[in-house]
TrEMBL record:
PANTHER family to which the protein is assigned, alphabetical: ENDONUCLEASE 4
Protein name: S1/P1 nuclease
Species lineage: Bacteria, Pseudomonadati, Bacteroidota, Flavobacteriia, Flavobacteriales
UniProt keywords, alphabetically: Disulfide bond, Endonuclease, Glycoprotein, Hydrolase, Metal-binding, Nuclease, Signal
Species this chain originates from: Gillisia lutea
SUPFAM superfamilies: Phospholipase C/P1 nuclease
Signal peptide range: 1-20
Length: 260
């Protein structure tokens, strides 16, 4: 009986730990992937279809989270985030994580996918990572502070359940809205050509700084131990939607540039 109880506790502990380190959650990542599909060029769609053997960007968008439990892929764990300490305003190689970070990951993916000599296996692997990491880039707390693990250590209550700030932004607001990823993707804000052009201008680093600026607002949006619910959803879920849309449109832009 003790052995069964210990196994159950261990299972819950491991799974809760893994959940706490997720990003956007499955619905958020799939939404970003689906939005990107809508904005792909015909040529990009054709090339991506070959690489993914017909699977959609939404389908493969969660791959980088799915491999976290496999020891062979442990080296990619730091690639999901980039941290600047409180007060730091500039990203430099000197202050970057020597094991890699989100910016380095995106650049690596781009390099492999642009290289004509890359194997199909590598192209598939890094395309899957790129789709996921573009989602991570637009979850503001993945550019948050390292000292609190991107808000994971900031305890709050989500309605009547214990939670943390990172988890609220990862998945709990999205889950509470109770729409599928396809419904979310098909109900984004309409943008003019000029707005879309402005949105996709810039670089990975520019978009990281944009997300970083948003993360500071997110940090200031709560008090430790605060009970969050309807008002927080009203104030912040539109921002979640904007970030998902930005991630999807920018992902499509990157892919269209690769496969032009």
């Amino acid at each position: 009986m003790k052995r069964i109880l210990f196994s159950a506790v261990l299972f819950l502990t491991l799974n809760m730990g893994a959940y706490a380190l997720n990003d956007w959650g499955q619905t958020g990542h799939r939404t970003t992937g689906q939005i990107a599909e809508i904005h792909l060029s015909k040529k990009a769609k054709k090339e991506i279809d070959k690489i993914l053997n017909g699977r959609s960007l939404a389908f493969i968008s969660t791959y980088a989270d799915e491999i976290k439990s496999d020891e062979r892929f442990r080296e990619y764990s730091p690639w999901h985030y980039v941290n600047l300490k409180e007060g730091e305003t500039t990203y430099t190689q000197e202050t970057a994580n020597p094991k890699g970070d989100l910016l380095m990951a995106l650049r690596k993916c781009l390099s492999v996918l642009k290289d004509k000599d890359s194997s199909k296996e590598d192209k598939e692997f890094y395309l899957k990572l790129l789709v996921h990491f573009m989602g991570d880039l637009h979850q503001p707390l993945h550019t948050g502070r390292g000292e609190d693990k991107g808000g994971n250590d900031i305890q709050v209550r989500w309605y009547n359940e214990g939670s943390n700030l990172h988890r609220v932004w990862d998945s709990e607001m999205i889950d509470s809205y109770d729409m599928s990823f396809s419904e979310l993707a098909n109900n984004t804000k309409k943008l003019s050509k000029e707005q879309k052009a402005e949105l996709i201008s810039g670089s990975f680093e520019d978009w990281m700084y944009e997300s970083k600026a948003l993360s500071e607002k997110v940090y200031n949006s709560v008090e430790v131990g605060e009970k969050l619910g309807y008002q927080y959803m009203y104030d912040w879920f539109p921002v979640v939607g904007e970030q998902l849309q930005k991630g999807g449109i920018r992902l499509a832009s990157v892919l269209n540039e690769i496969y032009k």
